[in-house]
Amino acid sequence: MTVNINIKTDSELKKQAESLFTDLGMNMTTAFNIFMRQAVRENLIPFEITQDPYSLEKAVSDSRRKPNLHGPFSSAEDAVTSMLKD
After folding, report:
1. Contact indicator for 76, 55 with CB cutoff of 8 Å
2. What does the pLDDT look like over 21-74, one tens digit per residue?
3. Distance CA 51, CA 8 (A)
4. Angle at 56 between CA 55 and CA 57, to 5 degrees
5. What are φ and ψ of residue 51, in 5° steps?
């Protein structure tokens, strides 16, 4: 028996992932099933998860030194993106 899973993700990320998986000869469902099988088999997430090298703490620290950071921002990522533009 199969079941449907609904996942919310960024539309651009989905587009890039679909392109990659197509290049690898599979669709999103196959790729996700490979990920889940590997995770269950190894009882862990099958790749290293690390903190973004440009952390929120660094963004806050940089914002205090950078007077041209203007908000409000809808997320920390938006704030970082704004800082990197300057």
Report:
1. no
2. 999 999 999 999 999 999 999 999 988 777 766 666 666 666 666 555 566 777
3. 21
4. 90
5. -70, 145
pTM of the model: 0.56
Q: Which residue would you say has higher pLDDT here, 1 or 47?
A: 1
- C-beta of residue 50 within 8 angstroms of C-beta of residue 56: no
For residue 75, which amino acid is it?
S
Q: Which residues contact 28 (CB under 8 A, 6 or more apart)?
A: 14, 17, 18, 21
- Exposure letters 44-75 (e unless 16+ CB within 10 A, then b): eeeeeeeeeeeeeeebeeebeeeeebeeeeee
Is 54 in contact with 80 (CB distance < 8 Å)? yes
CA distance 62 to 64: 5
